[in-house]
């Protein structure tokens, strides 16, 4: 083998990998170089050698790329959160556009000429910092045994003690300090993953960017918190000076516990116990009010979410006469936006609390033409289809054959059974909203082989500084 571990080589970075790493060649040998930016010339230390390629990390930037910027966060190299913070934001968007295009080409099997006619440029953020309304901070100990909280280092569960994340809301730092000081003063332990002992595992903080309402939820390995009233006192004493988009002062309105006594990587437990205030917070999105409880999904970047939902609505092309299914509907955000422009909307979601929130949200916003079903999309939809089909095609035609089906699945994409049933339902249009363009491309292939045509694709950047991108697509039935 030409190279070995710890060799130092000089590489010109010519491409970007899926995880944001720089890609370059030295003497025909391909290296994936962590923290290198496309256009850099770097001295890299090889960390792992394979026969035809290897991994390395930057030892020294010899000639910085014109796309290289000074990162805001001093932990960005170690932290697993922001992979491409050192890349200029406009170049990040080009990277995301290429990522969507490549996945459609390689995984989806769509011809380049077709992709280039249907794809529109990624919608970028005006301010790619402090955009996240939600953060989950692990709590633990440093090497000296001090209580800390922050973020996991990339690919590990070592905690970096950083409470000042450049993507999150500024008050998170004050909230975390209040939690840590409560824990120290009352001898409350942090959870240790290796032994399964200790109490506090994570702190979840969610802020309604419009309303200013803040939720603090401690995930605990137990059912109670000692001296819980002291935590509440600490949290309510925080001087919050920041204001929300509505002009209202930010304020903590919900303090709760999530019980998670399992030895698992899943952060939240299934039971929530309210310590103070309401069990949920409210926020406004697209002019509608939403209740959000700790276990419910809510898009993390509200500014870009409005743009994303705007695209989904445009692609759905509603006139007021349509029947719409919204699969993976969460707390009903897309369902309710669509309900204002459709005849009837049906939402499906697996998390029971999210369905409760969705029903409450329909009520609060006085939207009556929407119904929510709890369960897995791949179970609810086929069962529904079979049952109604047997009851009579004609009477149930609108539910069986909706005009539009919207899907917005988690990263793993749609289950095959769900896609299959969608094809049998033959909606005129399918709007696919995705947070992972690889599984999106896989699913679009199935839908297009099943009689649909890809009409529009557009990325919306919800996650500046990271390699992730959200995508909205419109598919039309070929024989419609
Ligand atoms: N459309 C919503 C939620 C999108 S996130 C929004 O924009 O806010 C994806 C949602 O799918 C989550 O709420 C998750 O709980 C839900 N989910 C995950 N797997 C599911 C499945 N198999 N069936 C139905 N819902 C599922």
Structure characterization notes:
It is a single chain. By secondary structure, the protein is of the alpha/beta class. It has 3 domains: 8-63, Nucleic acid-binding proteins (OB fold (Dihydrolipoamide Acetyltransferase, E2P)); 134-281, Beta Barrel (OB fold (Dihydrolipoamide Acetyltransferase, E2P)), CATH 2.40.50; 302-477, 3-Layer(aba) Sandwich (Rossmann fold). The chain is 26% helix and 30% strand. It is built from 11 helices and 23 strands. The chain has helices at 89-106, 112-118, 172-185, 228-236, 302-316, 333-339, 352-364, 377-391, 397-400, 416-425, 437-449, and strands at residues 8-16, 22-26, 29-34, 41-49, 53-63, 119-123, 134-141, 147-149, 151-152, 159-160, 200-207, 213-220, 251-259, 271-277, 281-285, 288-292, 323-327, 344-349, 370-374, 404-407, 429-434, 452-460, 470-477. The strands form 5 sheets. The protein has an 8-stranded mixed sheet with strand order 6-22-23-21-20-17-18-19, with helices on both faces. It has a 6-stranded mixed sheet with strand order 8-7-11-12-13-14, covered by helices on one side. A 5-stranded mixed beta barrel has the order 1-2-3-5-4. Strand 2 (22-26) and strand 3 (29-34) form a beta hairpin. Helix 1 packs parallel to helix 11 (437-449). The longest helix has 18 residues, at 89-106. It is globular and about 70 Å long. The N and C termini lie far apart (58 Å). The model has no long low-confidence stretch (mean pLDDT 95). S-adenosyl-L-homocysteine is lined by residues 297-299, 328-330, 333-334, 348-351, 354, 376-378, 408-410.
């Amino acid at each position: 083998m030409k190279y070995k571990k710890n060799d130092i080589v000089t590489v010109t970075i010519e491409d970007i990998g899926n995880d944001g790493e720089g890609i370059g060649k030295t003497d025909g040998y391909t290296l994936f170089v962590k923290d290198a930016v496309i256009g850099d010339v770097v001295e890299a230390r090889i960390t792992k050698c394979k026969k035809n390629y290897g991994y390395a990390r930057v030892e020294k930037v010899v000639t910085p790329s014109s796309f290289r910027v000074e990162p805001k966060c001093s932990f960005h190299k170690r932290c697993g959160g922001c992979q491409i913070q050192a890349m200029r934001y406009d170049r990040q968007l080009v990277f995301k556009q290429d990522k969507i295009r490549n996945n459609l080409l390689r995984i989806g099997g769509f011809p380049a000429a077709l992709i280039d006619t249907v794809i529109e440029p990624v919608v970028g953020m005006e301010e790619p910092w402090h955009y996240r309304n939600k953060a989950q901070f692990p709590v633990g100990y440093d090497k000296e045994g001090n209580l800390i909280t922050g973020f996991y280092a990339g690919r590990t569960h070592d905690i970096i003690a950083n409470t000042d994340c450049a993507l999150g809301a500024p008050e998170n730092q004050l909230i975390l300090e209040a939690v840590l000081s409560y824990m120290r003063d009352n001898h409350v332990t942090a959870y240790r993953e290796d032994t399964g002992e200790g109490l506090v595992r994570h702190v979840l903080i969610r802020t309604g960017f419009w309303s200013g309402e803040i939720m603090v939820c401690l995930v605990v390995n137990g059912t109670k918190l000692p001296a819980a009233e002291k935590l509440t006192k600490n949290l309510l004493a925080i001087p919050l000076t920041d204001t929300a988009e509505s002009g209202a002062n930010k304020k903590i309105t919900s303090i709760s516990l999530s019980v998670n006594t399992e030895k698992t990587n899943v952060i939240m437990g299934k039971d929530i116990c309210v310590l103070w205030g309401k069990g949920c917070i409210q926020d406004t999105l697209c002019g509608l009010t939403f209740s959000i409880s700790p276990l419910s999904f809510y898009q993390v970047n509200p500014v870009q979410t409005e743009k994303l939902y705007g695209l989904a609505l445009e692609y759905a092309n509603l006139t007021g006469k349509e029947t719409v299914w919204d699969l993976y509907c969460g707390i009903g955000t897309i369902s309710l936006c669509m309900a204002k422009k459709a005849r009837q909307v049906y939402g499906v979601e697996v998390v029971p609390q999210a369905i409760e929130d969705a029903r409450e949200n329909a009520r609060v916003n006085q939207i009556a033409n929407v119904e929510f079903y709890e369960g897995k999309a791949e179970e609810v939809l086929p069962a529904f289809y079979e049952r109604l089909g047997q009851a009579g095609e004609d009477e149930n035609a609108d539910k069986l054959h909706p005009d539009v089906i919207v899907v917005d699945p988690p990263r793993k994409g749609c289950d095959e059974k769900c896609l299959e049933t969608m094809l049998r339902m033959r909606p005129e249009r399918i709007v696919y909203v995705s947070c992972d363009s690889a599984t999106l491309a896989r699913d679009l292939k199935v839908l297009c082989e099943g009689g649909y045509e890809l009409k529009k694709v557009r990325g919306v950047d919800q996650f500046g500084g990271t390699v992730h991108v959200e995508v909205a697509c419109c598919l039309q039935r070929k024989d419609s």
